[in-house]
Design goal:
The structure is a single chain. An 8-stranded parallel β-sheet has the order 6-5-4-3-2-1-8-7. It is globular. By secondary structure, the chain is of the alpha/beta class. Helix content is 40%, strand content 12%. The protein contains 13 helices and 8 strands.
Length: 367
């Protein structure tokens, strides 16, 4: 079944409530409204927010006021009503960015029902739609496919056109983990000192045919796919190509686009086929979750320095994982990231910010 782009955008049922807004040209009034809102300082604090749950606008405003008073400047929000959430955020002087699950389309019933062929295929030739790796929500679409790229570009364009949205924030903009962070191996009962075929994506027909046209080889016939530089580069470039189309669609709306990414360009390339330092985005949020890698807080600083050097001046915000950071450690992590050259930090996630965390954050930002 083939649908026109406007049809599949109209019918899409993705993980976020996009509001079904029609395409429209940039609105000068909206642009002026955006420009009048709070300008980010040189070192800014962000937090991811799960926005569902039937919470009232008044309650969201109370929650946002609580974090704003501790020094938070912007929120990255998934789910919920964007009109209610953006009004509450703006009333408290916060920027409001929409958090979007990108290549992981677990919640996208429309894509699953109408285009099961879009989903990535492992080296064992098993679809992530029918056989998701690791966990049940790991259902990924293939970034090599042009219809997938157009579909995602249309979705983020709609988000960017939504009144009250200050920016679009991509997440899961990568392939599934071919190797998990070392700290997660025991949780899943795995030893991943090599790339196992059931976790190695994507070997769908389009990826194989496209690579064969470029390189002359079928990836399934490469003797050792994990060590093949051209095949690795193909997957990096595939994700990057999809990001470029989404960035162009969002920038056409006059809105910035950012992404949550794996900790460093080196780690991202190796674990999830993600060459994020090559992407045309406005800000980057590497998830420097140190305990996932069995590392200490000093490792956060090393990761910031690698990312900052690779980005050549574009803003980098160190993603910090609150469950592994009691208040004193949070303060140390923020100071470590700042000293290493980060443009700010992002906290995962707002619901984990205790009063003690907020007091520690307030104190370190004032130092």
């Amino acid at each position: 079944m083939t649908l026109r782009r406007r049809d599949f955008l109209r019918m899409a049922g993705g993980a976020l409530a996009l509001g079904g807004l029609p395409a429209c040209a940039p609105d000068p009034g909206r642009d002026a409204f955006r420009a009048s809102r709070r300008v980010l300082p040189e070192f800014s604090v962000w937090t991811w927010v799960h926005g569902g749950g039937g919470v009232t606008g008044a309650e969201w405003r109370r929650r946002f006021a609580r974090i704003r008073e501790a020094g938070v400047h912007a929120v990255l929000v998934s789910g919920g009503d964007p009109a209610i959430l953006s009004r509450a955020a703006h009333a408290e002087g916060l920027q409001f960015h929409r958090w979007f699950w990108t290549l992981n389309r677990n919640g996208d019933r429309w894509a699953q029902e109408h285009h099961p062929e879009w989903f990535t295929v492992s080296r064992e030739l098993r679809s992530s739609l029918e056989h998701p790796p690791y966990v049940g929500y790991y259902r990924w679409v293939c970034p090599t496919r042009e219809p997938v790229r157009r579909y995602l570009a249309g979705l983020v364009s709609e988000i960017a056109a939504t009144p009250g949205v200050d920016g679009v924030h991509l997440d899961y903009v990568r392939h599934s983990d071919v190797i998990l962070p070392r700290g997660l191996w025991e949780r899943y009962g795995l030893v991943q000192d090599t790339e196992l075929p059931q976790f190695d994506f994507c070997y769908c027909d389009v990826c194989r045919e496209t690579f064969a046209r470029l390189d002359g080889r079928d990836p399934l016939e490469i003797p050792d796919p994990p060590s093949d530089e051209a095949w690795r580069r193909f997957r990096w470039d595939s994700v990057t190509g999809a990001v470029r189309e989404m960035a162009a669609a969002v920038h056409a709306r006059g809105v910035p686009i950012t992404a949550a990414v794996f900790p460093t360009p080196t780690i991202a390339r190796r674990l999830v086929r993600q060459a994020w330092d090559e992407w045309p985005l406005d800000r980057f949020f590497p998830m420097l979750y140190h305990r996932f890698y069995l590392e200490d807080i000093a490792w956060i600083g090393a990761g910031v320095r690698e990312g900052v050097a690779a980005l050549g001046g574009r803003p980098l915000h160190a993603g910090l994982y609150l469950p592994d950071l009691p208040p004193d450690d949070l303060a140390l992590a923020v100071e470590t990231a700042r000293a290493a050259g980060a443009s700010g930090v992002a906290l995962f996630e707002m619901g984990g910010l205790t009063d003690a965390h907020l007091a520690a954050l307030r104190e370190v930002l004032a130092a």
